[in-house]
Amino acid sequence: MFLINCPYCGERDQQEFKAGGEAHIERPKQPTELSDDEWAEYLFMRKNIKGVQFERWNHAHGCRKWFNMARDTSNDEIKAIYKIGEKPPTQ
Amino acid sequence: MTQNLRVKSSEFIDETNRISFKFDGKTYYGFKGDTLASALIANNVHLVGRSFKYHRPRGIMTSGSEEPNAIVQVNPNSNITEPNARATEIEIYQGLEASSQNCWPSVNFDIGAINNFLAPLFPAGFYYKTFMWPKSFWEKYEFFIRHSAGLGKSPNTRDPDIYDHRNIHCDVLVVGAGISGIIAAKNAAKNNFKTLLLDEKNEIGGSTIFEANEDNKINNNLASEWLKKEINELKNIKNLEIKTRTSVAAYHQYNYLLARENLTDHLEKKDKKNKIRQRLLKIRAKKVILATGALERPLIFNNNDRPGIMLSSAIKKYSNFYGVACGTKNIFFTNNDSAYESALSLHNKGIKVKAIIDIRENSDAKIIKKINDAGIKIYWSHTIVDTKGYKRISSISIMRLSNDGTSVTGSKISISCDCLGIAGGWTPAVHLYTQSGSKLTFDEERKIFIPKADTKEQISVGSCGGDFELDEIIRNLNYKLKNFLNIGKTDFDSIALENDHETSNRNIWLLPSDQSIGKTKPFVDYQNDATAKDIKLALREGFRSIEHVKRYTTTGMGTDQGKLGNMHALGIIADTAGVKMGELGTTTFRPPYTPLTFGTIVGRNVGEFFDTFRRTPMNDWHIKNKAEFENVGQWKRSWYYPKEDETMHQAVQRESKAARQSAGILDASTLGKIDIQGSDSSEFLNRVYTNAWSKLPIGKCRYGLMLNEDGMVYDDGVTTRLGENHYIMTTTTGGAANVLGKLEDYLQTEWPELDVYLTSVTDHFATASLCGPNSKKILNKIIPDLDLSDDNFPHMSFKEVLINKIKCRIMRISFTGELSYEINAPASYGEAIWQKCIEAGKEFDITPYGTETMHLLRAEKGFIIVGQDTDGTMTPIDLQMDWIVSKKKYDFIGKRSLYRSDTMKKNRKQLVGLLTEDPNIVLEEGAQIVSELNQKPVEMLGHVTSSYFSPNLNKSIALAVVKDGKNMKGKKLFIPMKNKNISVTVSKTIFYDEENKRINA
After folding, report:
1. Is there a contact between A36 and B709 if contact means CB atoms under 8 Å apart?
2. Which of B333, B600, B679, B814 is the right S-S partner for B820, CB 3.0 to 4.6 Å?
């Protein structure tokens, strides 16, 4: 059970949060101009790597805010938490 | 005949408090402080159960939670009966009843024991190999297997006890209150860390507290005496909370631990009453110190499972702690020095020790001299090749071990005994350590797995960290504590330590016998009856992975999870396969460390709290009026209102007719309501719904369909424009929370530039939906001032009104096709407004109706229910709702997906109506649809999604999804059912009032 440091509320139990999949996948601004393959890339293709993954999380049973997390999927270590719109940490 | 084996009073036992208890129906006596195991042994009872597979007689082996054999049924004849309780952990109390498990008719005469003689027929994988053929016989086999499987019996009535959960946050959690744990906790608390110390036993002090070895001294005192003084001082330390009878079950990531605190199991029945039985502690610790100690290993030799064969350390604890002799003619069998300590403490209490069998050639520990002085015979380089005694060990046979330890030589010596202590060395209890995700490393020399590394958040100290001797334990503990807690010094820096140093073990995982292995029974996992033979067989059959061998042989899979024998299983595999143990790895230690009751896991979340319900403000009225309820999401919704002895069908038919002929009223409070405000609200709705919203005038309502980005229908509902920048959206009952979450997601992450604010107001409004041709007259009685003409208040519009000074919102919208008004009142006035409608409607015979009638009425009109007629694979085009998808809008959620090759392909399933040839047959929802009856293989075209008997049309109607249904109107299809084939014709989805005249009736 993670202890997640919500950037708006502080440390809370994982139970209060909802995972939202891979982060930094921007919705295309002009979907109609994309080919089926390009649209499918946005719609379906997600990474599932062993190592540091950037993810979206939502403090669903708290402030309802979405934020990003860098998590090492091999040991569940949370490397960083940062707000939506902020750049992912490089290290 | 019972015999008193109480040898000497013990300070841990209250001999003034005599307690009677029953075991297998017979009454025995023990003392306050006894466990069921120690009290039985004091009464010379060793045979307590039968083994799982062969039904071999089994006795008490250990003195703690690692016990594999002595598992009993507690309170066997009551509704609080508990199976698989360890006799070594049950504290006796007046009136305790327990019985043996897995035996019939009794533990002394067990019919199942025939399996023991049939043992050659039950090798590893027996079930997999035998019951597969012929395939059709499986159901017959299963019946017998289910009857013979399992150990205890589970209670068959509701658990009357109270359980609880508690959250605890602390700076330092210390698990295990032996000497290491106590020292660690004391240092942490004294340095201002909020500290919690837990131990599974009823007393703290671990094994040091009953230690009698005169060579182990701290500050010139016996280690046990020194520790007692330390324990006394603990009471005066602030910041320290100690919990006994508390077993840590699981150690999860981020130092989140679950522990079970046992509060009343040791109390008499009258003292248990109305008290919390067990409490689950959910602990978040900043730092964790594991001081879980070590478990003694057995030795694996032929017939090593007879009652009276016990761990050497357990024999010591029974004599030193409980004051009980486990036998009158004791023998010890060992590969290390620790058995000598046990032997000496028995000897010093006047209990006879006949011999010590040691597989080593010699030992130079000081204690050997004392054993020699005591006149106890030591057989060096010998091993036990067999034991005798069916219900209690009666003798052992020993032979000389060959130099390489793989065979025996010379002549056989037989020695009689009634108790055999076995000592195979020590296994650090690293279960919790590995559960936390940390890795182990194998110490090839000492043949133990130890923690690979300490971290900033967690350390392992004492014997669970691989330190076994007193001076080593305390020196390393001091060093580790200073680093871990970041403190300059500890109270124990200048402590004086003295102890004897042990000679190393000689490890032979499987001891040889003079008989071939096929004829022996060397048990590795006692509880599951897995022998070394089974493990070797698995390897011969090609199993290599330790995880596979474990499952095939069931080694380590009982309620004890193989705490005793797992290392031997690994060793035997490594030896047989010719690999190093370190390379083999271990099986995963899964939580819980010791079994938990279901009660503890669920805590207070039982009965009506198991899954909480939401009820509408009109709920009391529904109950008073005999409504039947149905669960919709978390809501309890009125399903139908049966009158007198009406069936559900009769009630629904009556309600449905009434709503169309005069007036009906439905509690629609559960629909999700989201308040939308902000200057970009219209633009936001444009993006989330498939249709256009910019031109919706203030005061008007519009139906909207919401898609997922993949183009599939997600939710629907009516949204009303209350002001220039203010809307109220309704969602489906079940979808409300998810829709809000999804909308928030887009607002926060994709379109943060939009000025829009969302607030869930589902609970703030109660909704009464008036429907039917007389609904206008009823509403007029309630609000005479309001002009209800179609000009002033047309279909799909909204008015804000006062009813008895209460501000209400009325939407003229319809889900039934009838003239209909939805009155939204502040939740606290919901029941009052509802009552008012009922009273005003009396002269029109207003009929309350539930969700079933609502479903029927909307099906007559062909209105979809998201989640019933859709399943996450339906686009609006599939639903033949092309009219609601804007062609003009540049983008909305899911738009692009409607033009993917897959969503445009022909032969997708589409929503259609179905009419049965015989109008009285009502189709089953979910029934499959085919076009030809004799086709092989038959092609499934689709299935029925909604089906009712319509009282207003006097025939059955159905909605269905059918491949290419759009082009099938008028086509005859079939629905094959178990006993008949039903002919149906594809129709339009709208069955009633096709011109939509009734909404303006």
Report:
1. no
2. B814
pLDDT tens readout for residues B366-398: 899 999 999 999 999 999 999 999 999 999 999
* CB–CB contact A43 B254 (8 Å): no
Residues B842, B845, B850, B856, CA torsion sign:
negative
Please check whether residues B258 and B333 belong to one and the same domain. no
Our count of domains for chain B comes to 5
CB contact under 8 A, A1 and B254: yes
- What is the pTM for the complete model shown? 0.88
The answer as to whether B516 is a domain residue is: no
Q: Which run of H or E residues covers position B126?
A: helix B126-130
Q: Is the Cα torsion angle B581, B585, B590, B593 positive or negative in sign?
A: positive
* Shared-domain flag, residues B246 and B360: no
Same domain, B283 and B316: no
Say yes or no for a CB contact (<8 Å) between B748 and A66.
Answer: yes
Domain that holds residue B948: 869-880+897-1000
Contact B256 A31 (CB under 8 A): no
* pLDDT tens-digit map of B668-706: 999 999 999 999 999 999 999 999 999 999 999 999 999
How far apart CA B326 and CA B233 sit, in angstroms, is 34
Same domain, B277 and B345: no
Rounded-to-integer distance, Cα A60 and Cα B538, Å: 49
- Own/partner contacts of B233-238, CB < 8 Å, gap of 24 or more, are B233/B186, B234/B182, B234/B185, B234/B186, B237/B186, B237/B189, B237/B190, B238/B189
Say if B578 falls within a structural domain: no
| Residue at B407 is within a domain | yes
Question: Which tens digits make up the pLDDT trace of B13-58?
Answer: 998 999 999 999 999 999 999 999 999 999 999 999 888 888 889 9
Interface residues of A toward B, Cβ cutoff 8 Å, are 1-3, 13, 18, 20, 26-28, 30-32, 34, 36, 39-40, 43, 56, 58, 60, 64-66, 75-76, 84-85
ipTM over the 0.95 cut-off: yes
Give the three-class secondary structure for B945: strand
Residue identified by tokens 């799982």 is B52
The CATH number given to whatever domain includes residue B748 is 3.30.1360.120
CATH number belonging to domain A1-24+52-91 = 3.30.2270.10
Is residue B45 within 8 A of residue B34, CB to CB? The reply is no
Distance from CA of A80 to the nearest CA of B (A): 15
Distance CA B298, CA B390 (A): 20
